[in-house]
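Input set for joint prediction.
Command: fold jointly, output tokens.
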Amino acid sequence: MKQFKKITKYVAVSIMVLAVGIFLGSQAMALTCKVSPGKIPISLGYHGTKVSITGEGLTTQDLIVQIYSPPGEEHLKYKGKAGGIFWMKLGTMIFENVPKVYLVYSTKDTHELLSPDTCKELSIGFDSLKKKAVIKSNLKNLDREKWLKELMKFKKVEHLYLEQSGVIKVDTANHSYSLNIDWPFEAPPGEYIVEVYAVKDGKVVDKAEAKIKDERVGIEEILSHMAFEKPAVYGIIAIVVAIIAGFGVGMVFKGGGGH
Amino acid sequence: MYVYLPIALTSVSLWLVVGLGLLVGLLSGLFGVGGGFLMTPLLMMIGIPPTVAAATDANQIVAASASGTLAHWRLGNVDFKMGLLLLVGGFTGGALGVHVIKVLRATGGADFLIKMTYVIMLGVVGAFMFFESLNALKKQKAAASMSEAELKREEDKKKAKAKKKGMLSSLPFQVHFEKSGVTHSAILPIALGIFVGVLAAIMGVGGGFLMVPVMIYLLRMPMHVVVGTSLFQIMFTCVEVTFLQAYQNHTVDIVLAILLLAGSTIGAQVGTTLGKKLHGDQLKILLAIIVLGVTVKMILGLVLEPSLLLAHGGGH
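tokens >
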């Protein structure tokens, strides 16, 4: 009986050790994502920043990292020929269900890594973004494909949309990855979602998520708050500052500009 | 060195913006124009949203015109009496113009009208000033080689021409403007102020480039007094615009305005000093060249296919 108890004790300890091992092992295998800095302070001298996205638990050689703001509306003016001669803004075009910022990085071209259906299902890449976008405009015979292409072009010029492949460093030996990006100063303040997809044989095998917060601090926050919450005071301050500066410089130049 | 703009939501080079301010301030001090027709497109080119560019420009013009007005006032170049009458007209015209735009927007086709008015007014004003100043410069050269008798004959001709004003001089409320050395009915500057105010509101600009020729050719004011008086008038117009834009549209970027005015206030002083050294007709011909240059750029922008078919709203 004593012998049986001893064996049972050994078995129980062994099972526990095994369980802990499996648990720790599975923890080590899960894909992680760490963004540094997670909070980007927009101060007076801000001109964009370097953002590093790193992670462990990578079991594949291919990755897709996408960063985006929650989808919303984009109100823009469309240009066309007035009277068949002059190019000018002819009306408003509203793009619905599109993010303000959309940055996609991958080890290879996303088309090589995933099928169009998978991309659409997981909302990865520009084509899936185009498929989900809705356009509202008074423009007759609206060519959806043409205007979505124009939106991509417009956003890319503004550095708010980007698709780049071959920029993620994958360390297969250590099952880790790293991506260093130039965060665009054009990105408006707000919260952004970072999604990392581990891809193998045309399928997503693992996923990790993180967030980036881009927020005004110090004088930037004070001025922005005042402009929207106390516009009359803000307007008066803007005028007083201008008048004082104008007359002030006028006084300084008294010797040079006067009789 | 970069500065982040809290309302424009973009980052700009400090020296580039101060430099732009300096350049436009220089033109302001030289010609008495606010420079909105130049500054707004320049700001848009460096990535400032059109609505913020136009509103903030008005804010910085307050500083440049205050600086310029002070410099011209010291030189005795501000006709306050004329300036106030033009201002009364300008404010009335501005309010009327805003209403016209509202009606046009409701019926459609406002943008086309704005753009066309802009190009036509710039083109006509620029071409007229250019040829008129060129003729004046030619006449000066000819006068330099004229005999005394010929000069007297020319003077008599001018006097006879002045007497022909007839209809305008028969208008009531005749006022003598000592500073400008002219006599007009008070109705005339108010009416002209209304005319410029309406056009300026339609085009979304301060109207300096329209007011200056109006003062020179229709009110017959001397060029140097025109510059000082125009700046005085522009200062008040832009105070009104700045407040309305900040209050209603939240589009005034005070950080951008401070950078611009740091350059423009100094530029306005340098421009005033430089202006003293140039002849009135030389100033006019320079302004005409700038106005014509902007017109050509606008026409090209209208005719050539843009690289982007989408844009932010607002602006010219």
